[in-house]
C-alpha cells in the first residue's frame, strides 16, 4: 500500500510522485496480485537461492488495512503462481507451470493433463500458463507460453464453465498469420464492453490485439519508439482508455 506525500506529480514529467511505502513479505518473490474487497491475494514464487527463507505458502490472502496474512499451500495447488483472477463467485483462478488451477478456498481443481484433449482440459505444451482474466460475462481467459521446442500449447483459450475454446487470431499486414499459437501473450485485459485486449511484449515492438467476439479483431503494432522498443504491461482506466 502507499500513501501520497505532500505535493503532486508534475504533468508531462516521467518521474512519479514520491510515496511512503509499507513493506510486506520482505525477501519473498510476489509474482501475482489480485484485489478482492479489503484484501489482496498474492501469488508467491519459490525461494531463489539456497539458504533463502521459503515463502509461507503458494497463495497468500493479505488484509490491506492491517497487513494480516493467511497463507495457503493446497496439496494439489501449483508450485508457484504466474497470475491470479477472481470471478464473481469469489473463486480464484491460478495459472502456473502446473497449468490452470481453480481454487474455491478449500480445494484445488486442475484443468491440465499431459496432452489432454477433452473439453475440460487445457494443454499448455509443457511451457506453463502465463496469464488469466475473467471477462464481463464470467468467461475465463488463459494464455500459455505456447511452445516448448516442438510441443505447441493451445495459445489463447476461453473457458465458459463447460468447455475450452481456442481463439484463432487475425492476419496482420507485414506479419505472419497469427493464430495465437507459437506466440507468447503476456497479459489479458477484459474491457467493460465485453471485449478483450491481448498484449504480447516479447517480439520486437510488441503487439496489442483487441478482440470483440465473432472474429472481430483490431491490431496495434506501432505504439513504440526507439527508446522503448516494446511494452512491458498495460492497464485500462475507468474511462476505458
TrEMBL record:
UniProt xrefs under Gene3D superfamilies: YVTN repeat-like/Quinoprotein amine dehydrogenase
Protein name: SMP-30/Gluconolactonase/LRE-like region domain-containing protein
Organism, as annotated: marine sediment metagenome
Amino acid at each position: 500500500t502507499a500513501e501520497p506525500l505532500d505535493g503532486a506529480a508534475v504533468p508531462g514529467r516521467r518521474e512519479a510522485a514520491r510515496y511512503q511505502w509499507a513493506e510486506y513479505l520482505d525477501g519473498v518473490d510476489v509474482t501475482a496480485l489480485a484485489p478482492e474487497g479489503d484484501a489482496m491475494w498474492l501469488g508467491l514464487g519459490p525461494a531463489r537461492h539456497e539458504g533463502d527463507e521459503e515463502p509461507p505458502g503458494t497463495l497468500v490472502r493479505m488484509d490491506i488495512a492491517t497487513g494480516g496474512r493467511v497463507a495457503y499451500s493446497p496439496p494439489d495447488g501449483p508450485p508457484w503462481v504466474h497470475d491470479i483472477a477472481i470471478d464473481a463467485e469469489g473463486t480464484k483462478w491460478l495459472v502456473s507451470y502446473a497449468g490452470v488451477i481453480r481454487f474455491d478456498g478449500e480445494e484445488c481443481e486442475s484443468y491440465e493433463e499431459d496432452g489432454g484433449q477433452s473439453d475440460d482440459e487445457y494443454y499448455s505444451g509443457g511451457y506453463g500458463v502465463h496469464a488469466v482474466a475473467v471477462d464481463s460475462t464470467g468467461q475465463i481467459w488463459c494464455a500459455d507460453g505456447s511452445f516448448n521446442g516442438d510441443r505447441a500449447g493451445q495459445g489463447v483459450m476461453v473457458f465458459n464453465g463447460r468447455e475450452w475454446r481456442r481463439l484463432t487470431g487475425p492476419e496482420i499486414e507485414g506479419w505472419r498469420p497469427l493464430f495465437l499459437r507459437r506466440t507468447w501473450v503476456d497479459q489479458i485485459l477484459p474491457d467493460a464492453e465485453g471485449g478483450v485486449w491481448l498484449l504480447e511484449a516479447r517480439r520486437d515492438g510488441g503487439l496489442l490485439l483487441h478482440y470483440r467476439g465473432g472474429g472481430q479483431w483490431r491490431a496495434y503494432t506501432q505504439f513504440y519508439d526507439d527508446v522503448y522498443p516494446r511494452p512491458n504491461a498495460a492497464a485500462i482506466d475507468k474511462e476505458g482508455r
